[in-house]
Amino acid sequence: MTDLSDQKAAAAAVPVGPQKMTPSEAFVETLAANGVTDMFGIMGSAFMDPMDIFAPAGIRLIPVVHEQGAGHMADGYARVSGRHGVVIGQNGPGISNCVTAIAAAYWAHTPVVIITPETGTMSMGLGGFQEANQLPMFEEFTKYQGHVTNPARMAEFTGRCFDRAMSEMGPTQLNIPRDYFYGEIKAEIPKPNRLDRGAGGEQSLNDAAELLAKAKFPVIISGGGVVMGEAIEECKALAERLGAPVVNSYLHNDSFPASHPLWCGPLGYQGSKAAMKLIAKADVVVALGSRLGPFGTLPQHGMDYWPKNAKIIQIDADNKMLGLVKKISVGICGDAKAAAKAILARLDGKALDCDATRGERYATVQAEKAAWEEELTNWTHEKDAYSLDMIEEQKKEPGNYLHPRQVLRE
Length: 410
Hints:
Layout: H1 4-12, E1 19-21, H2 23-33, E2 38-41, H3 48-51, E3 60-63, H4 67-81, E4 85-88, H5 93-96, H6 99-107, E5 112-118, H7 134-138, E6 144-147, H8 154-167, E7 172-177, E8 185-187, H9 202-214, E9 218-222, H10 224-228, H11 232-242, E10 246-248, E11 263-266, H12 273-280, E12 284-288, E13 311-316, E14 330-333, H13 336-347, H14 358-377, H15 385-395, H16 404-409
Parallel strand pairs: 2-3, 2-4, 4-5, 5-7, 6-7, 9-10, 9-12, 10-11, 12-13, 13-14
Antiparallel strand pairs: 1-8
């Protein structure tokens, strides 16, 4: 992967001010302005003209066997790097192969830009080469769709797709009729426009601090926003100030270190019983960088653990997520890192109700974690009657068998 210095060097070489160029040059220069150094896809005739200048602009086209793989690679690239993931393909069936991968990126809030060259404008509606209506394919799974309506607007739409992918935290689509790459235009390459996300509103932050000051058993849910916002240290600091157990939201086990004594494991499907039992005790829950998706809060292991009477403080950079799945007491639209720091600052020097039970709560956390670990250690097979019958049956058959739980535990 190209390092950040190469990315900055590529962006620094972008022309400044209005200049004559081809639409392909405007497109590639805007990619370079946004620090693009790697793209994923299959070479196709629909974008031959800009492809010839990818390499001189410092952009690698990484080929794949199937476009779905290119989409997933762009998604993974963006998650790991924090930069845009870019995927491109041939119009029609090449692009349609990417739908599943873009849907995955949408639900992961990944800034992927899918570039979809389209059949030429003079053959649209006439059954042009691999003609397909490409915007509806991705409408449900993109935050913004830019359709280049004139070659002179190539840089404008390209830049907007890259800006929106970051500001809206999800995939965007750049749809380009293939004949719009050619000709001569006068264009100015737009500078990337990135939002400076703050901690949230003063009143909501004050309300959150007040709730936490009176909490007897606060619990923190550390979500994907903690990872994306590089807020793990701030989450740790808030947990330590409160003496609060920290549970991971579903599929975000990397949002809090398992080595930390206040870590309790993930909620939701196949999650940690310790995490579920502890959040069930909460009177105040801080959902830090989490949309509180239904799959991550559903009953599991026979436990409907979500605390029905707890006050919920939800912090998410997307205001549309606040209170969407679970009823909340305080909603903070802000960056996870900045919000955690702001709440911590408001708690500084305050006497908290939970300070009096810090030792008792810590002992409870360790006891629940130890009980769950012991259960896992003894987790060799199911205990239900059907499974026990199957185990007895297998004893009569030749060869040795491992129960699926034994395999998982090993």
